[in-house]
Design brief:
heterodimer, A: about 1150 residues, alpha+beta, Rna Polymerase Beta Subunit, Chain: C,domain 2, Dna-directed Rna Polymerase Ii 140kd Polypeptide, Chain: B, domain 3, Hypothetical Protein Ta0175, Chain: A, domain 2, 6 domains, 6-stranded mixed β-sheet, 6-stranded mixed barrel, 34 helices, 55 strands, about 25% strand, globular, B: about 90 residues, Gyrase A, domain 2, 4-stranded antiparallel β-sheet
């Protein structure tokens, strides 16, 4: 029998083989191996407008990661760490074989360098993928780093997986209520390089209309069919269906197109929409072109594919009519069978395609230009390699992808090990965040085993940002040509053949109507008698290895629907399952033994057909047993490991099945903020900011997955003795009381690293930056004492204590504008652009790196470290979404103690528990205590945990504790016994990166904004706290006028302006003339001082700049002589 | 140690002891309660991070509150001396 241990062996084998970021690596490998060449082949050759000249594009190849230094030597190989340190891009040169054909004479094929391709770490073309742990350590890598990201200008970038609706599929739905359209079929047709939407609508009068991009308006269905070469009513009807009920629904459409009866007429009709008022031949020609190019381009863009398109359209119409007749339900857009994930490889392919097109365009232009000048063609001089390099690098650096997508590439989250892994497995939906999209956010049944049910953010992105489940695998996509041939070999009758058979009377209409429709990647390929049999035969072929294991097949059978869907495309989320036949799982104990002995791997079992990957569509046909004991005669598959429905982050929660589900979601978000060992090579790294926990511990209460994902080697937290009690009251409202003595012994200490860096830039005109101690004359010179800590080279030395405002790297730059230095001397013209430590921060200089960028500029990086000892207000959390800040640090003498004199590390308030129902945390406390008492860690994997509660309770009792993990405690302050018993157990607590030291802020006086002269905003700018509108309302309501003036004017932007009593314009006091000056009346008037807000003065001037003339009419503050002060 | 009277009445006194915490407070309060004539005695530490305590005592008039403080301290010292003597014998 396949017990828990045996199935766990399978999981271990799976991860040992695949790692945790297989989807990215598979996808990128496929891009490098196949897609890159395909993109070149799509172009094929370049034909510039030079008679007799052609350029044939051949093989494309990517070399190992290299950098071309500024001194123009040969490119030298680099390691990822060198790229990170020197702000380089980890990219390999792309070489393309080019053959020039001049007047039909082929030249020798030459390989030319066309640009750099960023290399995904640990992909096939990355040399580190084959290195041993020792070699990796030698080049400064973390040996367990999973790769799957890029290094662009020294920063690590992830291409986040994009979730999209499946393309090339017919999706039917009801029309909008109230509209003329009753039912719609939508097809997003995607051909390499572009996607086009086709809409097929059934209107209230029963007619069916087709519309697609680049043809305005709707085209009657029958006209479209005729244009595509299916001319007669009979052929159209048969193309749609052999079922008379469905054919019957075509009458209105056929009737509507009665007047257009030939292919030419139909084409002319369509051409009329595109090329209005042109000659008939032109219209026909234009229509043909448009149809070939923009109508269902995924089926092909040549005239030969028109028939194919006709049958595809007919199938869509059939589906539409079925929906109308109530024979089928509208397609579920949230079903994972209708979704595809676009990974790094796909996204890089679309990016490279655009970049390569631009490259070819430029090359053509350069060739023509060179020819005009009558020079000899030397390709190597004409090729501009930076086009591809820069396009790709820019997209990866900013995240702005082709097709106006943003946020595709993101900075890899290195808060801790889990956050990094989770980021690499993140999936983002393309749906707009603004719209509610309620259904799309809901957990769908088909997400089982594909997407983590817990790990999603709260708020606007909830349910739209997802994370892959542990065993989810994403298909790369294989060519469907072979599969199509195989289908015909299996006896699938092609559509055209079926129609001919019926027309010629060789086949009987009724029986054909009962045949199953066969779809290959959404394309209607033909009919087959017994759909279930076909599906099973395909499955057997796959299991026996005769078909690629990426092929999935589903037989969808309802009362009316009878379809076989064969899928081979990329981006389907699939999951492995053990095949069950005749009530017996095919994986045997012998197989497991072989895996343990290392004679077999997971892959072998897949090859043998004992384990197979199912996509969401095929899973509809499966009957999956959760446990071997649940297997019945009908069972087709056995779940390998039910806990693998969770994602990586949710997998570290002990006893998650005992928690209220939102708590697991909160925990999944919080685990990514915990401090720990984020990478084993953190000492070498130059992350812009990083935290490092000093004594990370692996949890006493384990889950099995922790070992696999490497959490135990790079943990983020520590086991703490937790007491649940009210004590002193300083743990109210989710606060926790920390044992000060434990903290003094080093508990939860961490180090914060921040990187400061600068580059010696060169400017056009021969000017350049200079790193060194700035001369006192430079603009923005801060004063001698700020540069005191600099060495002679202008850089601070390691281990120097620094505080906010101190200069770390001294630098002067040339003036920003050229006019500036006409008047000034050379020294004065320089600007001080030194790098200073951030306001409010302090620390010790930890590391100084002086190096060179690829451009040859001097690059200086200074890493500053700061010790963070837990203090009041620091944030901590358990693994159950129970977060809280430190409310009090108590000396251990004042903490409660047990009979044994044991003192807790953390006191949690009992009110944190009842309403949140995190029973898992109580279980963890019990299990943690058990683990500490017994001396071995506990397995708390959901559903399979052992020991069970009873066993742990018994053991505690045997070791002299109460079975509920509670203990008698005494008040440390008085020595008196505390009434009742107190739960004392070991719980894994994490320190989160929200610390008081980063947030504490106050201001009395400080900087003001230049424009408005109001106080600045925000801690980083030493800003004030805003006295906002609602606060203002309070003062008005209370009638506290003086306080109001104090807040809004005196302590803000109070100014005195001089207003001309004659014209009401703002004047000024001219100190040279010792006179008040009005811009209109000069000194022949009286100016009065008026106190206003500077923002008001600004408003007046802004109005003036728009041509509005605001005037201030002055009056007496207190009316004199009984007047109203306005005369 | 620094003692300061924060509230005083005929039969009532509250003193603030700076630089001391539960160790002294608990001891004195308990000895105060044992004294004849003391109706009420207690101590508190207003904030755990500020090292000062408040000791309160109320008498029935037979002794003054300050007398009570003194007596309590004497009793405590006496007991401690005896404790020391007993220890010597061990």
């Amino acid at each position: 029998m396949l017990n828990v241990e045996n199935r766990w062996t399978l999981i271990e084998s799976y991860f040992k083989e695949n790692g945790l970021v297989r989807q990215h690596l598979d996808s990128f490998d496929d891009f490098v191996r196949n897609k890159l060449q395909q993109i070149v082949d799509e172009q094929g050759e370049i034909t510039p407008e030079i008679p007799g000249l052609k350029i044939k594009l051949g093989k494309i190849r990517v070399d190992r990661p290299k950098v071309r230094e500024a001194d123009r030597g040969p490119a030298v190989e680099i390691t990822p760490m060198e790229a990170r340190l020197r702000n380089l891009t980890y990219a390999g040169p792309i070489y393309l074989t080019i053959t020039i054909i001049e007047n039909n004479i082929e030249s020798e094929p030459t390989e030319i360098y066309i640009g750099d391709l960023p290399i995904m770490l640990k992909s096939v073309i990355d040399p580190t993928s084959t290195m041993s742990a020792e070699e990796l350590i030698k080049i400064g890598e973390d040996p367990k780093d999973p790769g799957g990201y890029f290094i662009i200008n020294g920063t690590e970038k992830v291409i986040v997986t994009q979730e999209d609706l499946a393309v090339n599929r017919i999706l039917v739905d009801y029309g909008k209520p109230g509209a003329n359209v009753t039912h719609v079929a939508k097809i997003t047709s995607a051909a390499p390089g572009y996607r086009v939407q086709t809409l097929i609508e059934r209107e209230k009068d029963g007619t069916i209309q087709v519309s697609f991009a680049s043809v305005p308006g709707k085209i009657p269905f029958a006209v479209m069919m005729r244009a595509l070469g299916v001319v007669t009513d009979r052929d159209i009807a048969f193309a749609v269906s052999f079922d008379p009920t469905i054919q019957n629904e075509l009458y209105p459409s056929l009737e509507q197109a009665r007047a257009i009866s030939t292919m030419e007429d139909a084409l002319a009709f369509i051409g009329d929409r595109i090329a209005i008022g042109q000659k008939r031949e032109n219209r026909i020609h234009k229509a043909e072109q448009t149809i070939d190019r923009y109508f269902l381009p995924h089926l092909g863009t040549t005239p030969e594919t028109r028939k194919l398109k006709a049958y595809y359209l007919a199938a869509a119409v059939a589906k539409l009519i079925e929906l109308y007749l109530g024979r089928r339900e509208p397609d579920d857009k949230d079903h994972y069978a209708n979704k595809r994930l676009r990974l790094a490889g796909d996204l890089m392919a679309s990016l490279f395609r655009v970049a390569f097109k631009a490259f070819v365009k430029d090359l053509t232009y350069q060739l023509e230009k060179s020819k005009v000048r009558g020079r000899k063609l030397t390709l190597s001089n004409l090729v501009r390699s930076d086009i591809i390099t820069e396009r790709i690098r820019h997209a990866l650096a900013t995240g702005n992808w082709v097709g106006n997508k943003t946020g595709v590439s993101q900075l890899l989250d290195r808060t801790n090990w889990l956050s990094m892994l989770s980021h690499l497995r993140r999936v983002v939906s393309s749906l707009a965040r603004g719209q509610p999209n309620f259904e799309a956010r809901d957990l769908h049944g088909t997400q089982w085993g594909r997407m983590c049910p817990f790990e999603t953010p709260e708020g606007p992105n909830s349910g739209l940002v997802k994370n892959l489940a542990l065993m989810a695998q994403i298909s790369v996509g294989i060519d469907d040509k072979e599969v199509e041939e195989e289908l015909f070999r299996l006896g699938v009758i092609p559509v055209e053949e079926a129609i001919t058979q019926v027309v010629e009377g060789r086949a009987d209409l009724e029986s054909l109507a009962s045949y199953a429709k066969v779809f290959l990647n959404g394309k209607f390929v033909g009919y087959y008698k017994d759909g279930a049999e076909l599906a099973n035969r395909i499955r057997e072929l796959r299991r026996s290895g005769q078909l690629n294991d990426e092929v999935n097949v589903a037989h969808i059978r309802t009362e009316f629907v009878n379809e076989v869907h064969v899928n081979t495309d990329g981006g389907r989320v699939r999951r492995p399952l053990i095949v069950v036949k005749n009530g017996e799982p095919l994986v045997t104990e012998e197989d497991i033994d072989n895996i343990r002995k290392g004679e077999k791997t997971f892959k072998d079992l897949v090859k043998e057909g004992k384990i197979e990957f199912l996509d969401a569509e095929e899973e509809e046909n499966a009957y999956i047993a959760l446990e071997p004991k649940d297997i019945t005669e009908e069972t087709t598959h056995l779940e390998i490991w039910p806990p693998a429905i969770l994602g990586i982050v949710a997998s570290i929660i002990p006893y998650p099945e005992h928690n209220q589900s939102p708590r697991n979601t909160y925990q999944s978000a919080m685990a990514k903020q915990a401090l720990g060992l984020y990478a084993a090579n953190f000492q070498l790294r130059t992350d812009s900011r990083a935290h490092f926990l000093h004594y990370p511990q692996k949890p006493l209460v384990q889950t099995r997955i922790m070992d696999v994902i490497g959490y135990n080697d790079r943990p983020a937290g520590a086991n703490a003795l937790m007491a649940v009690m009210t004590y002193t009251g300083y743990n109210m409202e989710d606060a926790i009381i920390l044992n000060k003595s434990s903290v003094d012994r080093g508990m939860y200490r961490s180090t914060f690293f921040r990187l400061y860096s600068t580059e010696e830039l060169k400017y056009p005109g021969g000017q350049e930056d200079k790193i060194g101690i700035p001369e006192p004359g430079a603009r923005g010179y801060k004063g001698k004492e700020y540069y005191e800590r600099l060495e002679d080279n202008g850089i601070v030395a390691p281990e120097v204590e620094v505080k906010g405002g101190d200069v770390l790297i001294g630098k002067v730059s040339p003036p920003r504008f050229l006019q500036e230095f006409k008047e000034l001397t050379a020294e004065q013209a320089k600007r001080d652009t030194s790098v200073t430590l951030r306001y409010g921060e302090s620390g010790t200089v930890d590391l100084v790196v002086v190096t060179q960028t690829a451009e040859g500029n001097k690059l200086v990086k200074v890493r500053v470290r700061d010790l963070r000892i837990p203090e009041l207000g620091d944030k901590f959390a358990t693994r159950h979404g129970q977060k809280g800040v430190v409310g009090m640090l108590l000396h251990e003498a004042d903490m409660p103690y047990t009979v044994d004199g044991i003192v807790p590390d953390i006191i949690l308030n009992p009110h944190a528990l009842p309403s949140r129902m995190t029973v898992g945390q109580l279980l963890e406390a019990l299990a943690g205590k058990y683990a500490a008492v017994v001396g071995k860690s506990v397995d708390a994997t959901p559903w399979y945990y052992s020991p069970k509660e009873d066993e742990m309770k018994k053991a505690l009792l045997e070791h002299g504790y109460l079975s509920n993990a509670a203990e008698v405690v005494y008040d440390g302050r008085t020595g008196q016994k505390v009434k009742g018993t107190i739960l004392l157990g070991i719980v894994y607590y994490m320190k989160l990166h929200h610390m008081v030291a980063d947030k504490i802020h106050a201001r009395a006086r400080g900087p003001v904004q230049i424009l408005t002269r109001q106080p600045t905003e925000g801690r980083a700018r030493e800003g004030g706290l805003r006295f906002g509108e609602m606060e203002r309302d309070c003062l008005i309501g209370f009638g506290a006028a003086s306080l109001l003036k104090d807040r809004l004017l005196d302590n803000s932007d109070k100014t005195v302006i001089y207003v001309c009593s004659q014209c009401g314009y703002v004047g000024y006091f001219d100190r040279k003339k010792n006179k008040y000056w009005c811009p209109i009346h000069e000194d022949k008037t009286v100016l009065y001082p008026v106190t206003v807000s500077y923002a008001f003065k600004l408003l007046l001037q802004e109005l003036m700049s728009m041509g509005i003339s605001p005037r201030l009419i002055l009056g007496d503050k207190v009316p004199i002589g009984g007047g109203d002060g306005n005369e | 140690m620094e003692v300061e009277v924060t509230r005083a009445g005929e039969n009532y006194a509250e003193i603030k002891v700076k630089g001391e915490e539960h160790t002294l407070g608990n001891l004195i309060a308990n000895y105060l309660m044992r004294l004849p004539g003391v109706k009420f005695a207690s101590y508190s530490m207003p904030h755990p991070l500020i090292n000062e305590i408040l000791i309160r005592v109320m008498t029935d008039g037979s002794i003054s509150p300050y007398e009570a403080f003194r007596k309590a301290a004497e009793e405590a010292l006496k007991d401690l001396d005896r404790f020391e003597e007993e220890l010597e014998k061990v």
